[in-house]
Design a protein that fits this description.
The protein has about 260 residues and is mainly α. Helix content is about 75%, strand content about 0%.
Length: about 260
């Protein structure tokens, strides 16, 4: 499937990559202009900072891609939890695992759409099984492309269960309960961090808001910091400390599973 992604399905089926449209790249560039233009004006009383938007564009694009990849994986992780709960219900009703996957692919459309990753993946598994791919190979391929630990574990469980000939119902049930509990626990952590992230964003805005206020409502008070070596060094140190604090705070609040 890794080779198949070169045929144009790269963005749809490879969860390790993200391709940005021209509109998205333009928005990133405008964001860079605002950030560096604003920083140059507020801290150095010049718009020469706009020049930095061009070389930093690639860095901001990389960061945006990482954010989108992580968000897509988080969404897929939640969708996967719903899908295996549905899968277990069919296996518990007496269906084989192959048949359960086919039924799950159809029933996922009740809560999801054809554009959702989990629907596409289960539909692809259903299609591949129709041309004699084994269910183990299908799930393993999905797990490798997704990069999700829960999916890799589930894939290994299916492979072991098929080889050992154990009770598929019991094995799937235990797997579903473990993955469901793990994902729900992770969701609780994300919920607790959401409030902290909002507080941090507000705190990050305060220093800039103070400089903006002083810049426009008490311009004479800030003049001493512009156009002289001491002022430039002072503002540079303040800007570096502020940037480092923002980066440090973001890294502390980012939790990936």
């Amino acid at each position: 499937m890794r080779n198949a992604k070169k045929s144009g399905k790269k963005d749809l089926y490879d969860y390790h990559q993200c391709f940005l449209a021209k509109k998205d790249r333009m928005m990133i560039f405008l964001k860079a202009l605002v950030i560096f233009g604003g920083a140059g004006f507020l801290f150095y009383d010049t718009f020469w900072g706009l020049i930095l938007a061009f070389p930093v564009m690639s860095v901001l694009t990389h960061i945006e891609k990482k954010k989108r990849i992580q968000k897509r994986k988080e969404t897929l992780r939640i969708q996967f939890k719903d899908s295996i709960i549905l899968l277990y219900s069919f296996i518990a009703a007496g269906s084989t695992i192959e048949r359960a996957f086919e039924q799950t692919a159809d029933d996922l459309l009740i809560n999801y759409t054809l554009s959702d990753d989990i629907v596409r993946e289960f539909t692809e598994i259903k299609r591949k099984m129709s041309v004699n791919f084994t269910i183990e190979a299908c799930i393993e391929d999905f797990a490798l492309r997704s990069g999700l630990e829960d999916l890799r574990n589930f894939s290994q469980i299916i492979m072991i269960a098929k080889r050992s000939g154990g009770s598929m119902t019991t094995i799937i049930k235990n797997s579903v309960e473990t993955i469901r509990d793990k994902i729900e626990g992770e969701n609780e952590i994300h919920a607790m961090l959401a409030g902290k992230k909002s507080e941090f964003r507000l705190m990050s805005i305060v220093p800039v808001a103070i400089v903006v206020y002083m810049r426009f409502f008490s311009p004479g008070f800030m003049d001493v910091l512009y156009g002289n070596p001491v002022g430039i060094i002072t503002m540079t140190v303040c800007l570096c400390i502020y940037g480092a604090a923002v980066l440090w705070g973001n890294s502390m609040l980012e939790v990936h599973f």
